[in-house]
Write a structure and sequence with these properties.
about 30% helix, seven-stranded mixed β-sheet, alpha+beta, about 425 residues, disordered N terminus, two-stranded antiparallel ribbon, 11 helices, about 15% strand
Length: about 425
Amino acid sequence: MHSQFGRFIPMAVLFLGAMIGLRSVAIGQDNFSLKSAPATGIPEVYFYHGMVLDKNLREIPPTLDNVSFVLRRFTEALASRSSPALNTRLVDALRATPIPEMDKTDELLRSVAMARWLLAEKDFPQKRSLDPILRALERWATIPTREGINAQLRNNNRLAPTLAAMNLTIQDEAARDQRQLEPTDYMKECSAAQVPVPPDWGDPQWKFHDTLNPEFSFVQDAGKSIAEIWTYTDPDKPGLCVGLPRILNETGGIDLFGIICQSKTTGKACFWDNVDRWTHKQLSSEESKHMKIAAIEDGSMLGENCTNCHRGKNVFVIHPGTELDLPAEFETGNDVDWYSPISSQDTWGNPGPMPGLRTCKGCHALPELAANNNDLDPEPKEKSPYCRILKQVVNKTMPPGGAPAGWEKPQTHQQDVDLLRGKCKELGLE
């Protein structure tokens, strides 16, 4: 089946690009770099605590222009990998339902609709890892629009003929009004695995510790907000929850907000983000201020794959000696050899530990540098977000207690660093 995909760009794709205004330029409005992966053509973006980063780990500001631009590039890449017959059907649907004078929101929504339609094809290449990428991009797209994507698709009269021609079903959210804020199935599963389940935000059981120096946030230019470090411990379930609300410098409101909890006894870990679990909309600052854990997305549904970066002996990825390196009474380790994420999504996992290391495993084992979908043997190779994390760690704080080893020209631990660099190069890290 793969032989008909990705080998060439069908003529229908060229027509498609002309019809929807897809651009091949690599630089967005805010000068971010949007390079396409050689093997798949998919734009190289990284998801980090609700942010979307370019290949240089610079945040792509979630403006309407930028979001529309990235989604157009994503849809163009999907079209280039689909079969000629599928592209012809899509072109026919678009030709039959032209939309004059589309604005940026129309363009954004139409890109989402086309991407969903293409990925609905059962045998689409890399569908397993591309579906959650689209969901993560859709969540990101709700930041400038401030409304769930499904609601926007249903309410946009200009797009209605196109959606009908594509026979695209939009999920109905009518049941949202009858929701009960009781513990979710995910919360129950976490509790049964002895993972502490965090209280709602604003509960006095959350304890503030410090703010994180942006130098150690793993983002190159995280200047618009400051991450605060909050913890919660459950006296009946040994372990720890860490919450990182990002406080906007301009307004003082909460921007992005991720929570991770880990059991000390079982090594299981659970994840939450400030995304509405019904509309899949990024919560506003005011909504995040009153965030209910049972009302936000968790590891069973998040599009952003937290385990692409949170891998290893324990779930917490921490620069040693920084504000996130909490005092000893806050147990960030566990009693098992390797932590396990709780998620029903088969692309979430914790590959490893990595064989072949010598001195770098003196403190703890390192995880395997699996690809973007946590597959140790993907074909074609997909970039590993963990390599981006690893490069910064080796350049900034590892090994602890002395000068960092250095990634490009290691001053110490050269054999191990060379091994890591070689593995990352195989997965596309320049």
